[in-house]
Amino acid sequence: MIARLLIRIVALAALAYLVLPLVVIIGASLTETSYLAFPPQGLTLKWFGVLFDDPSYVSAFITSTLLALAATGVAVLLAVPASLALARYVFAGRAAVSSLLMSPLVLPYVVLGAALLQFGNDFGLARSFEALLVGHVVIVMPFVLRSVLPLLTPEQRALEEASADLGGRPLTTFFLVVLPQIRGGIVSGALLAFISSWINVELSIFNTTSALNTIPVKMFNYVQYTIDPTIAAVSAITIVAAALVIILLDLLIGLDMLSERQQP
Amino acid sequence: MTAPRTTLALLLFAPLAFFAAFFLAPMAVVALSSLTTDEGGPTFAHYARILFDQYHWDVLWVTFRIALATTALCLLIGFPLAWYLVRIVRWRSWRRACVILIVVPLFTSNIVRSFGWMVLLGRTGLVNQGLMGMGLTERPIRFLGTETGILIGMVYILMPFVVLSVGNALAKIDTALEDASADLGVGPARTFWFVTLPLCLPGAVSGAIMVFALAVSAYVTPALLSGGQITVFSMLIFQQYSSVFDFHYGGALSVTLLVLTLILVTLAGRIGERGRRAA
């Protein structure tokens, strides 16, 4: 029983630890003072106004969003055929292909970012939207792959074969049978991909410029020199956006992966 | 019907071509430049510079020390939290709310989360106010610019990975196995040690590998919380590419970090595999 109580205390403390910084940021973004204060002194939304009046923030916001959308789109287009190949075929080098496509999950992003900058320099691609895009596609593709692959089960395969037996052509079968079955995996993978692209700093920082900047890189450069309520306001926006996306995800696919246990 | 071979080639062509062009080729360029001089001749000088310089070993040691401590603390705090969520919480909605709370930080940028700690850990931040209010310390404790500060931020950022992967493993354990162990007269502590723990080991190991790999290569959190006082390996790489522009030496540093990470991840994977087989 003591162990149980102890676990409860540690767990609740850990939850508080996870929530505290987010609460502090949102609180600090509402302060009326021109310096950062928590608890906030007075309540105002003026720092959000300052943000929307600053064209560099607006353009960074647009760059980040376009980049994340494009990277997710390309990643889905590449990951779906790749996962079909990996799930359906036994071929020489299958393990190598699978580890190659998954490896960005464990590789240092700093290394890949530096590599793309250097590589891009040789081809006149460096510090451009395209340079950012290809890097982001590489790092977000494993997320799509990882959520689509488990859905391509033997049972799912049986339906696919049934469709082929009934005379369905491969493309028809794909769009009418396979796609509806793996849609959930594509959606959750795509959301993870979008978010990972949207919050990335380590990879983007090498190929961004003051004119072509993403929100996280802009914040990173800013926060190293100045801490003020505007930066808390940008942060607060990203936290609220993340929370909304997660609640949406939870309603769509159910995030509670910890309740699978059969109750006796 | 197309032949399987043609279909396979069609399916794999685009993803493999993309990875070859924008992942393998850039990495090859880095590896190549790490082995060449400005004139293009082959050399090991850049690696020798890393190998024979005490400074690099110091930085590596700091990096790995922080990553190891981060991994250990994540497991130490994350395990009880996962246990609590899976085994103790009875009310489904609260568990659901907790899962959301754990995932929200994962979906927020490292910057935002580290920034939160910059505010909290400052001289007049909430943490110091709290500590002084409780009379635990006379003067504010310096967190920013110390390894403790970096550690607090890193554990914060990476713990959700452990909670989710351990929680997943715990949720899948058939409790009948534990009941059987209890029926055979084994005490709860021994049941935990010999039945439950081995069963969730693969989950814990995969979570730990992820945390370790991310911690070794972390850049943003150490950069923001170190206040320029502490250098980790990824900062060296960034310096070379952003201000010194020595791509040869930077390349050698990148390859070093890459190889070390891969070795450690593979090793940890092996250990996890052995644990699984033993279980």
TrEMBL record, chain A:
Domain ABC transmembrane type-1: 61-252
Presence of keyword Iron-sulfur: no
Keyword Nucleotide-binding attached: no
Superkingdom field: Bacteria
GO cellular component: plasma membrane
Keywords from the UniProt entry: Cell inner membrane, Cell membrane, Membrane, Transmembrane, Transmembrane helix, Transport
Record's subcellular location: Cell inner membrane; Cell membrane
A Pfam family the protein falls into: BPD_transp_1
Coiled coil: none
Protein topology in the membrane: Multi-pass membrane protein
Segments passing through the bilayer: 12-38, 58-87, 99-119, 131-152, 173-199, 231-253
GO process terms (BP): transmembrane transport
Family designation: Belongs to the binding-protein-dependent transport system permease family.
Protein name: Putative spermidine/putrescine transport system permease protein
Organism the protein comes from: Ancylobacter rudongensis
Classification of source organism: Bacteria, Pseudomonadati, Pseudomonadota, Alphaproteobacteria, Hyphomicrobiales
UniProtKB/TrEMBL annotation, chain B:
Keyword Membrane: yes
Lineage: Bacteria, Pseudomonadati, Pseudomonadota, Alphaproteobacteria, Hyphomicrobiales
GO cellular component: plasma membrane
Key words, A-Z: Cell membrane, Membrane, Transmembrane, Transmembrane helix, Transport
Transmembrane segments: 59-86, 93-111, 149-171, 191-216, 247-268
Species of origin: Ancylobacter rudongensis
A Pfam family assignment: BPD_transp_1
Annotated protein name in UniProt: Putative spermidine/putrescine transport system permease protein
CDD domains named in the record: TM_PBP2
Keyword Repeat: no
Membrane-protein topology: Multi-pass membrane protein
